[in-house]
Design goal:
heterotrimer, A alpha/beta (589), B mainly alpha (347), C alpha/beta (235), A: 589 residues, alpha/beta, Rossmann fold, 2 domains, 6-stranded mixed β-sheet, 23 helices, 14 strands, B: 347 residues, mainly alpha, 73% helix, globular
């Protein structure tokens, strides 16, 4: 069986780890043990900070929780060490769920400060609660034993740690490529993922809990290796350390989670042991060097070291769609000519400002309707009302007869509305295929656990197959493996349409798709939309480019200053004096 | 708990609260103008306190070497920038800022003018000279290159800078904690209670500082320019205000405030090389209450933290820090939900 | 007449969007030039690039010197000022402070200019101590214009001054704009409202899809049916 080229580095590392106890001196083996331990925590940070964007200065607190729960249950409950593992995990998982629920409601810098706050809070609790041994901690934590062998020797501990790390690493990489993984990678853009039905808050919480669990596991290992728990390894300095290690390695990929601790710990040992001249002088060199390193990396290479290394190594091939796969469930198409979207008396006020008032129109199934008007006419507001981003002040919106104006974007997506965005919202680092696959979210079911354990391979294949089908349909099939950020703007807009089509919508809503496009790109887009219409897709387009709209759509609705001033076929509307006045401007002389 | 104890606790709380309040003002100012969360604020305080203690003992503080090193780094960074843009004019200002304070400080501290028996005001001025420039120098080396980066990147950089400062702190100051003898000892009897002279002095200095800042921001052109930069960076550029100069000014003010606060905290607490972090964090609570935006609310919030801390210390001294920080989370939650300026903070 | 601003083959791109594709235009000293065209044509990007806020390639010569690489603040110091589409006022500061900050660089005769601004915009004089964010749309536009005038510009660029304003206010503002020529200010005005712009300008350019579609004197273009076609699509 041929080994895929990109897996070779991992296999080489694994081989080195296994051989290390025989080939390398004890102090290196011990070092490797700690590197493995920190890598487990950093892997959680890659998920949390790298993929979701939550910068956490509190992971060490979860490590401490795992360690203390294990030590306490041995001392007070007399449990054997291995039995305390589920307890440690349960404790850190529960704490992660509770703290995470609070923390992810915070935004921006408040979120980061929040992680500092509970990190510190827990640290002080460790040090001050009765029965926890104060700042000297608890001793007498028995060492681990497996099959009669004590695991306290550095070699055996190191192998245990790396075995666990390997399992978590494999799970993480599998998760990244799965349906849930794609959604997680897109969580930095909650508006976009919610418009395809992803429950971003609960998914964020799951990642938070996962990171807490990883940290708790590391805590359990830590306690049993040292035989001792005290608060100092779990304070804010340790949290900062973990984050710095992850940033130095690179939070963008799991490999960074291992590279960071390896580089940092090696440097640390170098500074401590190999430069004895500095030892007697006093001073925290590590802090200085790592602080400077982090600042330099942030200024020059914010992706960390892993991206540099990966240039020299074989790359993981991008995910490919299978040649055949059973189709995903589809929606029953609406009967042609029926009123698919009905807008009645829709209005929106922002404080004293009336953005929209008394707007009425229909979008019949199987037609293309354009919503046009000069700048400030209220087109974007109307779009946001229909897609659930904003609630209306008055009026209602119905989709196939049912009211949707009170629903959030997720629910509207579930009813069969898919949209594109005025400013393209794609994940630039993900391939075109992966971006389009996000559109299939509501047509699949596999969650985070299934993704990590590779239990949803079939469903993933179906999603990718569907994504490829839509890419082919819009003419971008050959670019499936290209990163979305490398496409020209016109292609990116078409890519967004493919993503929306992947949701199998009844109504496709396009927000200024022609903005910023060259003439040929606009012509190509118009051809695509005509093609889609002939296949029975219903489209509502918001635009201000009259040229683009005129030869393309069946009906035009014109807005100005928040009200509808004209409606009809393009020819009729273009000659309407009120429309001409609205666009060209007028002034009483 | 009776009235006497309560009054004394309130006084204690206000004495430290004033320091947190001044720091909170400096953190809000730096944040509004540069969007950097000034995490090393507390380290300025700690270094100033330690420098002052050493001067009072007649020892020449090592702060001058830290300042010189940072200054040299700033000169190198600026030289590299000038070389790239071929504009050498800005070099002059940086050279002045980077070289004059350490050279002057070195000369004075080794000259015998600043021995243990020199007046307090001389030592205070030397401390300001040696510590205040650290902030703008940090801006030039660490934060100015990150001007276009996101708020979170700037925050990580600020934490890294703090980390480095603590490392340097251990090297230059040692692990020993120091306490400055009070500038004026004793208490003033006002009938219903006694007030410590130090509290009154701190109060006077703080009020003077805040008044000076108020005049600066409300009545001077550069003060208004700083406010304008904080409100609307593009608008400020459109009237010719250079945002980098505004940033440098904001950091300089923050350095001055930090150094001044350090002078005042020295007599009331034993300060170690790493005490800065907790001091800064408590000031942060006041900042968060103010949604990072309002100076008066930040001051009130920080004063409240000081008083709360004094009472918590009385009742449950061991858990006082835990209580203070765990309480931060609901405050953050409240603020995060009501801070409308955040919507639009894309990462 | 001397040429104050000369733009040659300007290209402006931000992110993926190529907003300006090879525009060339001139503004004579003492002239009023209008740039009209439909929304999304690239007009604002053009002005922002000329002000230094967007990177651009191509030639821009102002008062005989090249502006390449010059940041926004330096262009303002040279007398090239912009009143942007969003006005970018200091909302929490008073009208008086906003005007004072306009004179930050200390160019020109501050006192006289301020007196003139308050004379032509009496509404501002009534609201000197009011916070800029509480003013109506029209008053904010007047304040933005006043603030820019206090920078003593030689060439003032206005980005969509009529945007979101009622016709009466627009009339008032353009009345003042006409008087600026006598004060030695040349103007480059971007407007979606073609009629108003063509009434006040000497010369105009019609921009479509990032390039110049038509150019000529304002009088010529005001009666040219191709201008309407640029907005409403070809018939």
């Amino acid at each position: 069986m041929a080994v895929p080229a990109h897996r070779i580095p991992a296999l080489v590392v694994a081989l080195l780890i296994v051989l290390a106890p025989w080939m390398l001196p004890v102090w290196i083996v011990t070092l490797l043990g700690y590197v493995g331990l920190y890598s487990i925590v950093c892997l959680g940070l890659v998920l949390l900070t790298g993929m979701v964007g939550i910068t956490s200065f509190g992971q060490a607190a979860f490590v401490g929780l795992g360690a203390y729960v294990s030590a306490l249950s041995i001392i007070h409950l007399g449990l054997s060490p291995w039995l305390t593992l589920p307890l440690s995990l349960a404790a850190s998982g529960l704490a992660g769920a509770l703290i995470g629920w609070l923390t992810i409601r915070l935004s921006g810098h408040y979120l980061v400060l929040g992680t500092m706050a509970w990190g510190l809070g827990l640290f002080y609790l460790f040090g001050n609660l009765q029965g926890l041994g104060g700042f000297n901690g608890l001793s007498g934590v028995p060492r681990l034993e497996a099959a009669g062998l004590s695991l306290v020797e550095p070699a055996r501990f190191m192998l245990l740690v790396w075995a666990l790390l390997a399992i978590l690493f494999a799970g993480t990489t599998t998760l990244i490529d799965s349906r849930a993984g794609r959604a997680i990678r897109a969580l930095r853009d909650p508006v976009m993922v919610e418009s395809f039905g992803v429950q971003s808050a609960s998914l964020k919480l799951k990642v938070f809990v996962a990171a807490a669990l990883f940290a708790g596991l590391a805590g359990w290992l830590h306690a049993h290796y040292l035989g001792h728990v005290s608060p100092s390894p779990f304070g804010i300095n340790a949290s900062v350390d973990y984050l710095f290690m992850a940033v130095i390695g690179g939070t963008g990929s799991p490999a960074g989670a291992v590279l960071g601790p390896a580089v940092v710990e090696s440097l640390r040992t170098l500074l401590r042991d190999a430069v004895p001249a500095l030892q007697g002088v006093g001073g925290n060199y590590e802090a200085i060097v790592f602080g400077a390193l982090v600042i330099l990396l942030l200024q020059r290479a914010s992706g960390g070291l892993a991206p540099y290394l990966s240039r020299w190594l074989p790359q993981r091939p991008p995910p490919r769609a299978p040649a055949v796969a059973p189709p995903l469930p589809t929606r029953k198409p609406p009967s042609a000519g029926s009123a698919l979207l009905e807008v009645r008396g829709l209005g929106k006020r922002f404080g004293g400002l009336v953005a929209l008032q008394g707007v009425d129109f229909n979008v019949p199934a199987g037609q293309i309707v354009a919503l046009i008007g000069p700048n400030g006419a209220g087109k974007s507001t109307l779009f946001n009302l229909v897609t659930g981003v904003l609630p209306p002040s008055e009026g209602e919106v119905r989709l196939q007869g049912q009211r949707i104006d009170t629903l959030p974007p997720r629910a509207i997506a579930a009813r069969g509305v898919a949209r594109t965005f005025q400013h393209v919202r794609l994940r630039a680092n993900m391939t075109c295929l992966e971006n389009v696959a996000i559109g299939t979210w509501l047509r699949g079911r596999a969650g985070v656990m299934a993704g990590a354990l590779a239990l949803s391979r079939e469903e993933d294949a179906q999603c990718l197959f569907e994504a490829q089908r839509q890419l082919d349909r819009v003419g971008l099939g050959a670019l499936a493996s290209a990163p979305a950020g490398s496409l020209a703007l016109g292609q990116q807009r078409v890519l967004e349409i493919a993503r929306a089509l992947a949701a199998d919508p009844s109504l496709l809503m396009l927000d200024e798709p022609a903005a910023g496009l060259r003439l040929q790109e606009k012509q190509a887009l118009a051809t695509l939309l005509r093609e889609l219409k002939s296949q029975g897709v219903t489209v509502l387009v918001v635009e201000h480019d009259m040229d683009f709209v005129m030869n393309l759509v069946d009906r035009v609705v014109v807005l100005q200053f928040g009200t509808k001033i004209a409606e009809g076929t393009p020819d009729v509307v273009r000659r309407d004096p009120r429309v001409i006045e609205a666009y060209l401007g007028g002034l009483d002389d | 708990m009776n009235a006497t104890i309560a009054t004394l606790l309130v006084q204690d709380g206000l004495t430290s609260g004033l320091i947190y309040a001044l720091l909170a003002v400096s953190i809000v100012l730096v944040f509004l103008v540069t969007r950097v969360l000034w995490v090393p604020a507390g380290d300025m305080v700690a270094f100033a306190a330690l420098t002052m203690s050493l001067l009072r003992q007649g020892i020449a503080p090592n702060t001058v070497w830290l300042l010189a090193g940072l200054g040299l780094l700033a000169v190198l960074v600026q030289a590299w920038r000038c070389q790239r843009s071929r504009e050498w004019q800005p070099m002059r200002g940086v050279l002045l800022l980077a070289l004059i304070p350490p050279v002057l400080g070195y000369a004075i501290t080794r000259s015998g003018l600043a021995g243990a028996d020199a007046p307090v005001i001389v030592h205070a001025l030397i401390t300001l000279l040696l510590v205040a420039p650290l902030a703008p120098l940090l801006y030039l080396t660490a934060f100015r290159p990150l001007a276009e980066a996101s708020v979170l990147v700037k925050l990580i950089a600020a934490v890294a800078a703090h980390y480095m400062l603590v490392g340097f702190g251990l090297f230059f100051f040692g692990a020993e904690g120091l306490r400055t003898p009070p500038f004026i000892s004793g208490r003033l009897d006002v009938g219903i209670t006694t007030l410590s002279w130090h509290l009154l002095l701190s109060l006077a200095v703080s009020i003077a500082m805040i008044a000076a800042l108020w005049v600066f921001f409300e009545r001077t052109l550069w003060g208004k320019a700083l406010r304008a930069t904080a409100i609307n960076r593009f608008g400020a550029r459109l009237v010719g205000i250079r945002t980098e100069r505004a940033g440098l000014l904001a950091f300089s003010i923050a350095g001055l405030i930090g150094a001044l606060s350090g002078l005042m905290i020295g007599p009331i607490a034993t300060i170690y090389y790493d005490s800065g972090f907790l001091i800064g964090l408590k000031a942060f609570i006041g900042v968060v209450c103010a949604a990072m935006a309002s100076f008066p609310v930040a001051v009130l919030g920080a004063l409240a933290v000081g008083v709360f801390e004094a009472f918590a210390s009385f009742f449950a001294s061991a858990l006082k820090e835990a209580i203070v920080f765990v309480l931060l989370v609901p405050i953050l939650l409240w603020r995060s939900l009501t801070d409308h300026s955040l919507h639009g903070e894309d990462d | 007449m001397a040429t104050l601003l000369e733009v040659s083959d300007l290209h402006v791109a931000y992110g993926k969007v190529e907003a300006v594709r090879g525009i060339s235009l001139t503004v004579p000293e003492g002239g009023i030039v209008a740039i009209v065209g439909p929304n999304g044509a690239g007009k604002s990007s053009l002005l922002n690039a000329l002000a230094g806020a967007l990177p651009a390639s191509g030639g821009v010569r102002y008062a005989g010197r090249s502006l390449a690489g010059l940041p926004v603040e330096d262009r303002v110091a040279a007398g090239l000022c912009l009143v942007p589409e969003r006005r970018e006022l200091f909302a929490d500061m008073t009208v008086s402070d906003n005007l004072e900050l306009g004179a930050f660089l200390g160019r020109g005769n501050r006192r006289e200019t301020l007196a003139w601004v308050l004379e032509v915009f009496p509404r501002l004089r009534e609201r000197l101590q009011q916070k800029a964010g509480t003013l109506s749309g029209g008053e904010q536009q007047m304040l933005a214009l006043g603030r820019a005038l206090l920078s003593a510009p030689r060439l003032l660029m206005l980005d969509e001054p009529s945007l979101g304003l009622a016709p009466l206010i627009v009339r008032e503002i353009f009345r003042v704009v006409r008087q600026l020529r006598e004060r030695g200010v040349s103007l480059l005005i971007v407007e979606q409202n073609a009629r108003v712009a063509l009434q006040v300008a000497d010369h105009a350019y019609v921009i479509e899809n990032g390039s110049v579609a038509l150019s000529g004197t304002a009088a010529e273009l005001a009666s040219d049916p191709r201008v309407a076609a640029a907005y409403l699509g070809a018939t």
